Amino acid sequence: MSEKIPINIIELPETEYFESGHTACAGCGGALAVRQAMKILGDKTIVYTPACCLLVFGSTYPLNAWRTPFFQCAFENSAAVAAGVAAALKRKGINDVNAVVFAGDGGTVDIGLQAISGAAERNDNVLYICYDNEAYGNTGMQRSGATPFGAWTTTTPVGTIIKGKTEHKKDFPRIMISHSIPYVATATVAFWRDYMQKVARAKDMRGFRYLHVLSPCPVGWRASTGDTIKLSRLAVETGLWILYECDHGAFRFTGPSRLIAEGMKQRKPVKEYLQLQGRFRHLTDKDIALIQEWIDKNWQEYSKFAASTKG
Hints:
- The chain has 311 residues and is of the alpha/beta class.
- The protein contains twelve helices and eight strands.
- The protein has a single domain, classed as Rossmann fold, CATH 3.40.50.970.
- The chain has an eight-stranded mixed sheet, with helices on both faces.
- Strand 5, helix 7 and strand 6 form a beta-alpha-beta unit.
- Helix 3 runs parallel beside helix 5.
- It is globular.
C-alpha cells in the first residue's frame, strides 16, 4: 500500500481544466467530480467521454468547457478508445500524458462493461473515472445497474404493483477488483481530499486504474440543489456508500469509512439519507428496514474482505 498523498487546498492550481462555463444543472455532482479530478490531472491529459450528461453539458457544439484535448466516444466503447490512444502514446514514447475516461454509470456498469473489462484484463494504461448519479440522467432518468433498491426512475415507476427498483445496486468496484488491476477506489464529492488523494495516487501508476465516484443528481434524485454535498456526505456516514481503495490487491477503508470500520464512529440511520430525496418518498418503514439490513450485510462482507487482504 502506497503512502498517503497530502492534498492541501491552498496548494491546488488556480487554473481550471474544466471551465465553469459548462451547462450542468445546478448542484450537479458530476460536474464537481470532474472539476476536482482535473485539478490533479492537469493539462497533460486527454479525456474521453461516452454518451452521458457530461458529454452534453461539457461539450455541445459550438461550446466546450475542456482546456485539454477531449474526444466524444460511442456509448459502449470509451475504454477501448482510450486504450487505443494509450497504446499510440506508448508507441511514440510519450509517457507523461494521462489517458482518462470520465463516464456515467450507465456507460460504465451496463453498456460499457465489455470494453472496460477488456481494457482491465489487458491492463491497458488508462485511468477510468465513473461519476455515478445512479441512473441514465442524460436520457430522462431511466434505471441503470447502479440504481439503488427502491428508487423511483422513469422505468421503475411507483405504482400499485411496482414501487421503485426491486434490485440492489450493482457493486461494480468489486467487479473491477476481481480483474486484479493495479488500483481500484471509491470516492464521493463531499470528501474532496480523500477523492483527490486517490486521483493523485492513480495518476502516478501505470496500467488500468478505476475510480468510482458517487455524484448526486438533484434533478433525478428529486432533491434540493443545495443538498449535493450533504447527500454525498450522508451516503458515507450512513454506510450506504463505503470509501476504500484496493492498491495492488491490498484493501483498506479510507476517510470516514475507516473510522466506522475501526469502531471510532457510528453509522447514522439510512433514513436520514433517504428522506432528503423524492425518489425514495414512497418507501415504507419496512422498505427502509430492508435497506438498513442490506447495509449491515454489505459492511460485514467488506470487513471480511479487508481482513482477508490484510491491507
